Amino acid sequence: MVCKDCASGTVHTGTPTGRVETLHDLPTYIASPPSNDTPIKATIIMISDAFGWEMPNSRLLCDTYAERANATVYLPEFLGGYQLPLSVMWDMKDMTAEGGWMVGKIPSVARVIYHMAPFLFNTRFSVASPRVHAFFTAVRESNASLPVFAAGFCWGGLHAVNLTHATSTTPSGTPLVDAAFTAHPSALTVPGDLEKAQRPLSISNGTKDFVLDMKGVESIKTVFARKNEEEGGKGRFELNVVEGAKHGFAVRGDPDDEEELRQAQVAEDQAVDWFRRWTEHGRTA
């Protein structure tokens, strides 16, 4: 599912400090803690939004996670080359701007459709999920001691949630993740996808998100409250609602807008706290 807010936002400035390698057959951005003396405590695998693994925003967030969570962070190319170009953000801004003649917006509309149609077809869940699972399986099987976490945004949110299901295991039956975090996930089946969650799962969502709207949020709250109660209050499932935040706020908010910067920081802190918490538990699988 792609909406106006799924394909709009701000491209962040800054220079990512990680490196690019081919890892488990996929081009991958790899971020590490800034100090070589920092012991690595976990592996975090980011599943990007529709703009893919090369978007500066996602790479900069990987750098932040690596530093704050003492983790190696991988951002693989899960979209198979069908990510939306950053220019779609500017075309979307032009399309949704108030005023102006509609005829003047036709080129922007045409460009968005040109890029959106192949994205929707070629990155649908049934196509991308095997690619995602294969990468997580390879990391899990090559990493015998460290916990593995997923962090999914927008398009990647559905995959992050799916990775917490009982069916997401290596061939030997080991769960692919120890815990997952997602912000403003798209295309969830609510409450079904959340009912199936078996591994610790944290969600950050905004009150102005009309992809996962407040009706869906309330349904998830009910599911998580029941799950946590059934497990004796272990708190393995959490949902944080960020007041005033729109879809995409965790990765594509405007850092020059004080409120959007605050909203993104809330999601960042939530993710880092979640990773740190489950890192202390070590491998839960």
3D structure, described in words:
With 285 residues, this protein is an alpha/beta fold. The chain is built from nine helices and eight strands. The protein has helices spanning 56-69, 87-96, 106-122, 125-142, 155-162, 192-195, 214-230, 249-252, 258-280, and strands at 19-23, 26-31, 42-47, 71-76, 148-153, 179-183, 201-206, 237-242. The chain has an eight-stranded mixed β-sheet with strand order 1-2-4-3-5-6-7-8, with helices on both faces. Strand 3, helix 1 (56-69) and strand 4 form a beta-alpha-beta unit. Helix 1 packs across helix 9 (258-280) and helix 2 packs across helix 3 (106-122). The chain is globular and about 60 Å long.
Describe the structure in brief.
This protein has 285 residues and is an alpha/beta fold. The chain has helices spanning 56-69, 87-96, 106-122, 125-142, 155-162, 192-195, 214-230, 249-252, 258-280, and strands spanning 19-23, 26-31, 42-47, 71-76, 148-153, 179-183, 201-206, 237-242.
